[in-house]
Amino acid sequence: MMIPVRCFTCGNVVGEHWDEFKARAREGDENPAKVLDELGVERHCCRRMMVSHKDLVDVVAPYQ
Ligand SMILES: [Zn+2]
Predict the structure, then answer these.
(1) How high is the pLDDT of residue 64?
(2) Residue 10 annotated as binding?
(3) pLDDT tens across 1-31, in order?
(4) On the chain, which terminus has fewer CB atoms closer than 10 Å, C or N?
């Protein structure tokens, strides 16, 4: 499942970070907040894009 390329709120590009975020925070065992800090996703609106997307995947995944 793909994430929108840009943050809906500020237009910052977040899609390029999604693969690494997913690998480290979702499939790995790292703290999502720490991964976002290291990726340079510092605005709350952009972080919300990544974190809420993760939650959505968890909700949808059992039905795929
Ligand atoms: Zn943003």
Answers:
(1) 60
(2) yes
(3) 678 899 999 999 999 999 999 899 888 999 9
(4) C
Query: Mind spelling out the 3-state secondary structure of the chain?
Result: CCCCCECCCCCCECHHHHHHHHHHHHCCCCCHHHHHHHHCCCCHHHHHHHHHHHHHHHHHHHHC
pLDDT for residue 23: 92
> Cα(58) to centroid of ligand 1, in Å?
22
Cα 9 to ligand 1 centroid, rounded to whole Å:
5
The residue written with tokens 């943050």 in the block is 7
